TrEMBL record:
Keywords, alphabetical: DNA damage, DNA repair, Hydrolase, Magnesium, Manganese, Metal-binding, Nuclease, Nucleus, Zinc, Zinc-finger
Record's protein name: Fanconi-associated nuclease
Any one Pfam family match given in the protein's UniProt record, by short name: FAN1_HTH
Catalytically driven reaction(s): Hydrolytically removes 5'-nucleotides successively from the 3'-hydroxy termini of 3'-hydroxy-terminated oligonucleotides
Cofactors (names): Mg(2+); Mn(2+)
Species, as recorded: Tripterygium wilfordii (Thunder God vine)
Amino acid sequence: MLAGRESLVRLVGKRRRFLPNGHSLSTLVQSNDGEVVSVETVEGLSENSTKVEDEDSAVEMVTSDWVICPVCGNRVRGEAYNVNCHLDSCLSRGTKRKLTQRTLLQMKFCSGSVAHTSFCESEQLETNVDLMGLDNNEGKTALSGFIFSSTIEGNYSNCVVIPSNPESSMETCMDGSTVNGINSDGVDNKVEASLAINNEVPNCDMAVSVNNLSGLVIETFIVGRRFSDEKEINLGAAISLLRDPKNVKDPNAIKVISADAGCSKVLGFLPRDLAQHLSPLIDKYSLIFEGSVTSIPKHSLNVVPIQIVCCNMNLQSSMESGDIEVFTFLWKNVLTVATSAKIHPPDVTKYQQNFCLLLQEVLRSNPHLFTDDEKEYMESFTSLPVDSQRLFVRLYMRKGPWFRMSNILYREVLNSQEAVKALCAAGYLRRFEDSYGMHDNEMKEILDLVTLSELREIMCMLKKNCKHGTRKQDLIASLVSLYKDGLCLLLPNLILDRTGTCIKISSKVESLLWRAERLFFLNSEQDLSAFLLVDMGVVKYPTYRCIISEPIFTDREDLLAYEEAIGVAQLMDQSLDDNDKESVLRCMKIADSRMCGSSTNSFRSTESEPLVIFLSCFSASWVYSKVVLLGVSFLEREHRYNDAIVLLKRLLICFPHDGRRGYWRMRLSIDLEHMGCPNESLSVAEDGLVDPWVRAGSKVALQRRVLRLAKPPRRWKVPSFSQSVKREIREVHIQGRPLNCETGMKSRFYGEDGEQCGVEQLALQYYAGEGEGWQGVHTESGIWLTIFGLLMWNILFSDAPNVFRTRFQTAPLDLETDSFYEVRKDIIESHLQKIQDGMAEEILITSWELYLGTACRGVNWERNSLSELRAVVTCSGGPFLASLCRYLAQDYRSWSSGMPDLVLWRFHGEYMGQMKLVEVKGPRDRLSEQQRAWLLLLMEIGFNTEICKVSPLQVSS
C-alpha cells in the first residue's frame, strides 16, 4: 500500500454514494493565469450556468471563476453563496474597506444571482428563533448566549454545547445541568435541560399539593395493545385504571380498562416508566383515576393517546407531614414522566429516535452552516408519518442505493406503500419507474438489483448472445453499453417488468445527511450504528464535560470547502482502486492548487493560537495535504522524483506547524538524492534537525542520514549527536527450527513444545528458560498505552475548552497535539509526581475498578489482565512510569507507536522486581527508525533494553 493511503482511507471513511461535484472534479479547466481549477456544483445560479435535470432534482452546474474581494483583497471562488458569506465575514469584523459601501453594492461582484442570501448575520439569528420553538423575546435571549443540548438517556449521556457567540463560554455537566460562564448579568446561571426531539424542555417545577389533584389532567398513552381484550376503541370512550401487582413482567403494571356501562375489558396498559411512579400512589393512597380516549390511531395495535384525571378529594386531612413530602415527590415524578412522554411518544422506535436526535442536535448546534431551505427540509422529517420515518431510517442504514419495493418488509412499518408515497412526495425518496435518459452510473446501479437469470432473460429478449458462464458484471456492462449508445431505449421498461417498483434515497437528502453525520460525530468512522452499540450495551463511552467557546467551522464557506476537499480525497481513493492514473494526477493537481490558498490553513497554523491547532484537521487545506502526500508516494512509485520534490517543498511551506514535517523532510532528502543532488539533500536533512516539529523516529532517521551524507569534503565537523545515534544497543542471538524461510512472509518457527509459533513467542520461551525466569507478554505499544490511559484517566477527561464536542468521544480532540500538555501542564505534573512517588499501582487499580469496559483511546480491556498490568507497573517503578507518561502526554502522536515487542518482568520478593523491554527481530527484519528512537530513549532514562535476533538453526551436514 502506498504511504499515506491508510490515513486517507480513514479520512474518507464510508464513501459517499452521491458525490455532488464528482463529475466536475474529474474535469479540469485551465484558467487564464494557468492555474488548475475545476467545474463545481454550486447552489446558486450564475449567468453562465448550465442546468442538467434528472428525476431527482434539477442540478445546476457552473464554471467557477476566482474573484478578488473588494473588501479584504483575498481571492474567493466566484460562487454566489461563497461570495456573500465571505462579504458577511469581512464586513462584520470591521475590515478596512477599499471601496465605498455604495460602490460595493453596485458592482458586479460575480456572474450570479445574490438572491436568497442575507448580508446581515442578525437576520440569520432571527430565523433561528423558529428552529428553537421560542417566541421572539425568548429566542433573542437564547441566541445572545448559547444554544445547548444535553441528554440524560442511556450511557451516552455526554453533553454538547455550541455557542451562537464564539466569544462566549459555556460549560455543560454530565448530569444535564449547563453552566453559562458569561451572561448579561455577570452571574453564573444553572439550567436543567434534557434533550428532546422537538427542543422542548419539560417544566415540572409547578407547585404540587394534595389539594390540586382534583381535575388535573395528565396526558399519556395506552400501550401493550396486543395484550388487550378489546381491539376496537372509540373516540371519547371512558376508561379507568386498575393496578396489576401480579403481573409477571412488571409488578408496577397498571391496566387501562373500559369504564363503559356493562363493559370492563382490558384495553392495554400505561407506559412502564409512568406506572413505576404512579403505582405507589395508587397502592398507598388509594387514588382513583378515570379518563377518556383522545385520539384513535390508524392501526388497532398502535399506542392510543388518552387523558386521565384523579378523582379523589380531600386527601390532605388523612395524611401526616411525612406522607405529604413522599406524596409530593412521587407526584412530581409522575408529572415529569408524563411531560417527557409528550416529547418521546412510546411508539417511536429507538433507531427512529436516535436519527431524530442526530438531526436535532446538528441543526441546533450548527444553524449557521445550513441555509433556511436546508433547515426546513431537515426539520420536516419529524412531521412525516411514523411509518415513513421508520422506513427511511431503515433504508438509510442499508447499503443500497436502489431497493426493490417487493423486498421491503419491516414489522414496525405497517404500510410500506403509503410510507414510500409520503417519502417520495416530500422528496426523501425517488422512484425508478419509466425513467428515460438516466445516467450510465444510475443504470448500472439499478441493474445490480436484477438477478443473473433476469439479466439473461433480458439479453435474450434483445437477441444478444448470452453464454451460460457469463458473469453478472459482464452482462451489466453489456447492457449499460447498449443503453449508452442508444441501442436499447426500452431497457428501463424491461428492468421494471422484472423488478417492479424500485426506490432510492434522493441525492439531495443523502448529501444533507452525510453532512449531518459528519458534523455530529466529527469523524468518518462513526455513524448511526454508534447509537445502536450504546443501546445494546456493547460500547460505553466515558463521562466528561463539554466547554465550547469556538466553533469548528466558523461559517458555511469553510464547511463547503472542507466537504469539497473530502470529495477530492474520495475521488483520489477511488481512482487508486481503479488504477486510473489520469484521475489520480487530476486529484493531485486540484489538491495542490487549493492547498496553500486556503484561508483556514493560515488561521489554524498561526503561532498566536497554538491551542487551537488541533482543530486544523477540520480544514480543507489539511485534507488536501493528505491527498498531496499520497500523491507524493504515487509519484515516487512512478519514479517522477522531480514532481514529488515540488509537492514536498510546497507542503513544507504551507504547513509550518505540522507533526508530519519530519516525514516530509525525510522524503524530500531521499528524492533529492535520487535526482543526484547530495548537497541539497544534506541541507534539507540538517534543516530538519532544527525544526521543532521533527520528532521521535523522524528525527533519528534524519540524524542517521546526516551522518551518512556529512562526510568530507561536504562536512568536516562531526555532528554533536553522532555518539548518541551510534550508541550500541545490546543484542541477544537465539536460534530456532524454521517452518518457512520465504521472503515476504512472516517468519515461523517450531517452539520448544513443538508447536508452531512466531519469533516473539520463541523469544518469550527463551527468556522463560535458560535460568532467566522472566515472565512476559508480547504486546508492543499496547500495554503501555493501556497503562497510560488508566493512570492518566482523570487527566484525559478533565475540563478543557473545545476538546469534547460529541457524546461519542474516547479521547479529547487535542490528545495528539502539543495542546494536550500545554493546557493541562499544572495538573499533569502534579499527577506525575504522585506516580513517581509510588502511587501508580493504586491509581491503576482504582481506574480499573471504576471504568472497566469504558471505551478510551489506547486502552484495551481484554488484551491484558489486571494482574499483568500490576506486575508491569510494580516492576517498572515510579520514575520510569512518570517519564513514560510525560513523553506520551507531551507528544502522544510521535511516541504512541514503535515500543519494544516484549515486556518482561520477574519479582524479587513480594513488592520488588525487575523489568526488561526486548525488541524481537526475525532473520530478514531490521529496526525501523521509530523503534530505534524508542530504544535509544529507554537507554537514556536507564531502562534495561535489548534486541533479540532470531535466526534459523544451522544444521551441519
